[in-house]
Amino acid sequence: MSKVVVFDTETTGITEPVLIEAAGIIINGSPFNDQTETFSQRYNPGKPISFGAMATHNILDCDLIDCPPATEFKLPENTAYLVGHNIDFDWEVIGKPNVRLIDTLPMARKLWTQLDSHNLGALSYALCDESERPEIREKLINRHSALVDVELCLELLRFILKEKSELKSWGDIWRFSEEARIPDIMPFGKHKGIAIKDLPKDYKTWLLSQDIDKYLKIVLRAK
Fold this sequence. Notes:
Elements: E1 3-11, E2 19-28, E3 36-42, H1 51-57, E4 79-84, H2 87-93, E5 100-103, H3 104-111, H4 120-127, H5 133-141, H6 146-163, H7 170-181, H8 201-208, H9 214-222
Parallel strand pairs: 1-4, 4-5
Antiparallel strand pairs: 1-2, 2-3
Helix pairs in contact: 3-6, 3-7, 4-6
């Protein structure tokens, strides 16, 4: 049976990142299936952790000395979909395996445009009942492993499914994720903030000749 893995990593940093921790929740079958299993493992990256990354996840080089090398990481067998918040980063860190990616970040941006932030912590506060916020706060304060972010991401996915009740399968969710990745507004450059449909034709032509995000290329070609 195909598996879906809600996934997160911790790494050595932004520049040439190497895996130091991988965590996931494995879902067999339906997205509404509560029967899940988890995994979490730290790895020795073979290079120092940057101080910026260290300050974020509080994992030290000395914590990883006896861990298996990062090159040993593999996704569970029969993984068909990888789900995460800004999942492309985690997918690239583990070597771009041949799986479909479902990104909760663009889906959340599409559904809750009014929010001032769409990072995982902000969404966790915004979408829960007010009475649940102290519990969310404890989770966020005590983020000692990637598994906490995975749990928050799965909860976010369930909020998305409540909002988009027409999504009945993983294929439906993947297609919505792909659609949500396609921008409506120019995200950078001298026309940043302008609706892409209103960009000058010569600027669109120039952009298409550049090395840009494939989803931006899709909308530029369509409009």
